[in-house]
Specification:
heterodimer; A: alpha/beta; five-stranded parallel β-sheet; 7 helices; 5 strands; elongated; B: mainly alpha
């Protein structure tokens, strides 16, 4: 005699169906439901939500490119030194919380001007390093900080130039 | 051995329950993590972010309490393989992302450590799965 009422496939199907119902119900009851399908507006809303959580002013890649062209900001690459060498925004300074960097954050931050606007970036929208570094620099007394929303991915999407190698720094 | 399998079932189910909670609380943020892996086409990102955490929660709970356990063990093992593959893909391509496995908004974190952890979870899952499909011994203690 079998101790199982249903076959494995039926069990799995029941669980998936229940999950779908729960997901639809829970999202429907949410004060601001996440749209099931992305459109431009929804994506923009998600981005602003993500930034609000980061707690740091942000800018889009087009705005960053304007600042870069006008030399109105110092760009700070928050990724690892290896990633920096592989490609970075020309003139950017590599400042990283990566323990492999060899220098602590205090030493690295000394290379940054406090009187200029700093634009911090990492890989893309979801990478945490730019937001983490912004927090750390804030603690060290830097006030004019912005995070490049889409990171290097957004920068490349607006055809921003890239440099390779370990030469950076254009403060 | 039965007690060990029982414990493994609770722990394996519990891992997925724990992993689901912060994703259910903030699907928009979880969608950003899903997107960052650059595996799914844009159209599937939000449905995945909305449904996946519920699959984790319900299957984790089903396995822990021993209802529909075989289906739940099957689904969670498939998920564990999928997560491992996604992490491996991100690691291989050098993506600079957070795992997004347990706590959303976690600081940095190392992909290779996440890979190791997920491999451990999968090993546990396969042990649980084998237990779910084992015939009980005649007169044996039926704990699952």
């Amino acid at each position: 005699m079998s101790r199982h009422r249903f076959g494995v496939g039926t069990e799995a199907f029941l669980l998936l169906a229940l999950s779908l119902v729960a997901a639809i119900a829970a999202n429907g009851l949410r004060p601001s439901p996440l749209p099931w399908w992305r459109d431009g507006g929804a994506a923009a809303m998600e981005k602003s939500l993500f930034l609000a959580k980061a707690g740091t002013p942000s800018l889009k890649a087009e705005e960053a490119l304007q600042l870069w062209n006008a030399r109105e900001a110092v760009f700070v690459d928050a990724r690892s030194p290896a990633m920096f060498v592989a490609g970075h925004i020309p003139g950017a300074v590599n400042v990283t919380l990566d323990p492999m960097a060899g220098e602590d954050i205090l030493t690295q931050a000394d290379r940054l001007p406090k009187d200029r606007r700093l634009v911090i970036y990492c890989d893309n929208l979801a990478c945490p390093k730019s937001k983490d570094l912004a927090e750390a620099l804030k603690q060290l007394g830097f006030t004019n900080l912005m995070v490049l929303l889409d990171g290097l991915e957004g920068w490349q999407a607006v055809s921003g130039p890239l440099d390779m190698g370990d030469k950076g720094g254009r403060p | 051995m039965n007690a060990l399998r029982f414990l493994a079932r609770i722990v394996f189910g519990g891992v997925f329950i724990a992993a689901s909670l912060s994703k259910i609380a903030d699907p928009a943020l979880f969608a950003q993590y899903v997107d960052a892996y650059r595996i799914l086409p844009a159209i599937l990102v939000n449905p995945t972010a909305l449904i996946l955490p519920w699959v984790e929660l319900l299957c984790g709970a089903a396995l822990a309490v021993g209802v529909l356990g075989r289906g739940a063990a099957m689904i969670l093992n498939i998920l564990a393989v999928g997560f491992l593959a996604a992490l491996g893909h991100a690691w291989w391509h050098g993506l600079d992302i957070s795992c997004g496995c347990f706590t959303l908004g976690e600081k940095g974190g190392s992909l290779s450590l996440s890979l190791l952890r997920d491999a451990g979870v999968l090993a546990l899952g396969l042990f649980v799965l084998s237990g779910q499909f084992r015939r009980p011994r005649r007169g044996g203690l039926l704990l699952d």
